[in-house]
Amino acid sequence: MTTSFAPLTVAIGDLVPHPANVRSNSPETYDPENIAHLKASIAVLGLLQPLLVQKLDGKYAVLAGGRRHAALKELVADKATKGFMAKTKVDCRLVPDDCDVTTALSLAENITQAPMNAIDEFEAFARMMEVDGQTPETIAKTFGTTVAAVKGRLRYGLIHPDIRAAARGKVITLDTMKAFAEHPSQEAQREVFEALTKDGGYLQAYTVRQALKSRGVQVSDDIGAFVRADYEARGGAVAADLLEEHSVLEDAALVETILLEKLGAAAEEARTRLGFAWADAMVRYDYATMADYGRVYPGPIEPDEAAQKRVDEITAELEKLQLEMEDEGLEDGAYNALYDRVDALEEEARDLQEAYSAEDLARSGVIASWQGGQITLHVGLVRQEDTVKEEGARGSSASPTGEEAPDAGEITYPASLAEDLKTERAMALGAAMALHPEATLDLTLFKLVSDVLASGMSVTQAIKIDARKEYRSHAKMDEIDETSLEQVAAAHDALDLSWLDDTRAPADQFAAFRALEAGEKAKLVAYATASTTQSCFTRDRQRDSLMHALEIEIMPDIRAHWTPNAALFNRFKKAWLLKILGEDLGLAQEAVTLASSSKKEIVAFCDKLFAEPFATLTDAQRAAVAAWCPPMMQTAGVACDEAEPAAETPEPDSEVAQAA
């Protein structure tokens, strides 16, 4: 239609807006920031499309091309731009005065100038570089955009022609075509495209990206950044991308070789420093492979004078840091920095107070793996062929708490945390005793008469029958799980204390006490005995068969009285939390995903998981979450299906069962 309109040139100063322009009611369209890219394009390339004008009151009113007109006026006003003045003439086409379709013409031009096809736009940018010799910088200036945006478009324009043709022909989607830009090499793109389409079927962007990963490692990947200098020093091929972060180290085998060398060197350095027998490396931590290893642990040693002085300094600093971390207004960065400092100090304190035995060092080693973008060391591992089979031949594998040696793969707890966990277990056991008055009454009476009438040692030291309430110390008493406290409080509220009146003489109180029903007396004795339970871990059958049997009877599952919470997880190392998630709970994928998160985020995840197990968990994972506690806190020798309330027992060959 516009070809019938007479061409003419008009000075920029003689152009005015036309009232019939459909954009005249949206003046924000002509704001400088909204036409910056158009101004930049006209400044470099000139006015590529004539304006549609109509004679109006001696001026030429712009009927279609208002944004181009606004850009021209900006160029005239911009003294830094050469070649654009009010007298400068630009190409136009004249609409006759008697034309009655002015509004229709304006609307038609504005809605028919649809954006370029995405592929056309990508290819146009590529041609400007390949044919016209332009750079991303000059293209960005022409179109008034950023260099990064131009490079992003250019990457798609440089995708193999066959793949672009497939996208243009709707054989693959535009998103799938874009996925091929993950690798700069058109040859690699073509090979993957042909391999994935040879059998037909729908091609997804995700499938393309996964296939291209086998063709190399991007320099922005954590492994790529870690090995790049050595890779290039050895002459490894690099497929350069317009965006540097998307360049690819093409020799995946060389990348892995260098990574394993670096991991091996780190493992060897740790072996030499700690005195282990062997060192090894693996690219990725493999839970199935690591499950085949046993593990030894350092045992307690008596620090010398200098070491003890340093331990005391660390203890004082840790107390100060704990107070700082309780500040609710603390920024995440500062909070994480404090966490890292606490971890480092606790590790230093452990090193000063613990050591491996010579026997364990002679049969164990260290493996270095790549986790969360850094080297992670797994120490004290024992190969299957080196496992000592003789009964009791565990060397210094006993935990630093003096309890029975942990099973292979168990986390070792620092002394301060172990003591607090003992306190929490004693509180849970006390709640169980208060809720089982008959059994506890029998225990009390049995200990009382046995200690008096029997010869030899006391039947158990686990409870005190000397009418004195046990004092339980805990570093964070106000932050522990309140389940056992609530249960004990409920048991207290149910007691008949009508006899307990300080205004009456003891003889009168005793008379009232004797008048109580037997069941009420049992509750009172049970509550009192429960208050004497001492801080403890699970009982050893050989050391205390009495309490071992009673605990199994009244507290088959500590989780009925206690739930792990954020306060506990805060005191665990980040590596421990990931280990618990991946190995104990069967949440291996979640552990891998969270490896790059901050410890604070992992603690929040664990707290939420245990407070209300996620609906997405499998039955085995749900059972593991419902039953988990530090191993030395659970009643010894009790299987999951013996616990009350009953929890579903994972299959023997499941990940949870293997982790346990």
Automatic annotation (TrEMBL):
Biased composition (Acidic residues): 641-654
CDD domains: ParB_N_like
Residue ranges of domain ParB-like N-terminal in the record: 8-111
Ranges for region Disordered: 387-408, 640-660
Highest rank taxon of the organism: Bacteria
Pfam family, one: ParB_N
Alphabetical keyword list: Coiled coil, Plasmid
InterPro entries recorded: Chromosome_partition/occlusion, ParB/Sulfiredoxin_sf, ParB_N
Gene Ontology cellular component list: chromosome
Coiled coil regions in record: 304-362
One GO BP: chromosome segregation
Name recorded for this polypeptide: Chromosome partitioning protein ParB
Organism: Paroceanicella profunda
Taxonomic lineage from the root: Bacteria, Pseudomonadati, Pseudomonadota, Alphaproteobacteria, Rhodobacterales
